[in-house]
Amino acid sequence: MNGLAKKIILSDYLATNFVDRVFDTPLLFTGLENLIALFAYSLQVYADFSGYTDIAIGVALLMGFRLPQNFNSPYKALSPTEFWRRWHISLSSWWRDYLYIPLGGNRGASIGTFFWMGFLSFVAIMLSGSIWVAIALIALFLYIGIYAYFKPDSRKFISTNMNAMATQIVGGWWHGASWNFIIWGGLNGFGQVFNKIWVKRSQTFRAIASFVLFAGSAITFKQTHIAIFAITAAYFGVLFTGIYAVMTFRLFSQKTYHWIYVAWNVSLTFVFITFTRLFFRAGSNLDPAEANEVAWNTAKNMVQQMGTAWKWGTLSTIAWEHINIILVFVAGMLIHWVPKKWKSRYRIMFASQPLPLMVLSTAFIIFVIYQFMSADSCPFIYFQF
Length: 385
Prior knowledge:
The protein contains 16 helices and no strands. The protein has helices at residues 2-24, 31-62, 80-86, 89-103, 111-128, 131-150, 155-175, 179-199, 203-224, 227-252, 258-282, 288-308, 315-321, 323-337, 340-351, 355-371.
């Protein structure tokens, strides 16, 4: 019932009433509506994936089998790396055991490491069709090679991150033979590598770097009007504000508030993971022959709308038009962030009820789920994989 509630009340409701419509025709919706749809999809795909997992685990328990946990509140993750330890554990652990570790894991580089990085770089160059991408990649690998030569202590760190990047890109490819899944995997790999490098830097460096990235993206957007730079500027502007606020606070007090640290990092990770999902959703349910063009255009159009098409004077009106979607999203996220022990408690309470009361509770839960059902039942997203 827990899995069915996730599937019907959260996943299907969000998909049929809003998310699918926006992803089908993003140019017909404002920047705020595209943003709401993207965040709603992030909850939808979690509720769908973990919903079928809950159903499978529950049915298995009824037959006497105990299946392992497959989702561990992934949107509580403090970093992209931690996210993949919590998300779809059966799949991510398979990647770890059969891709990451054979490539060398955190032990060092292997022939497979260099093969995959070279091959995937070639694919990126062919995909972009730009000489500048080729120059940038050559310059990057030259820099990494020179840095590793003069800094032997860094070689293990570099090779570990190369293995992680290759694993994520190949893992993205596993989902489908189209570029959008490769891009999605590459973004997740980049997020892991960037975060590992970022946290090793001093707070002063991070403040300067985030401000430079914010200012550079904002200036570039003003000159080119390319929407992705507006989104990048917004993300790093928020990042800089948070770092600057911490630095200012520490001038007057050394007291730490762990819950603020957790909330801040959980929010940043959730936003980053949500934006990678743009490419995952854009190519889902498409034939590989048409996925490349359709997915790319969908992602490009949504980025364009989120970066430029904001009607600032009507934000409250637009939000109110979609208040049901927003409330379901907020309720779903709040439930997700509830401490694990609380969730265990309500399951124990349900299982401890006398049989007649349990039957009534079950009937009530099914009645509530039924109110959210639509005529067009959505198949489980993971069926396509």
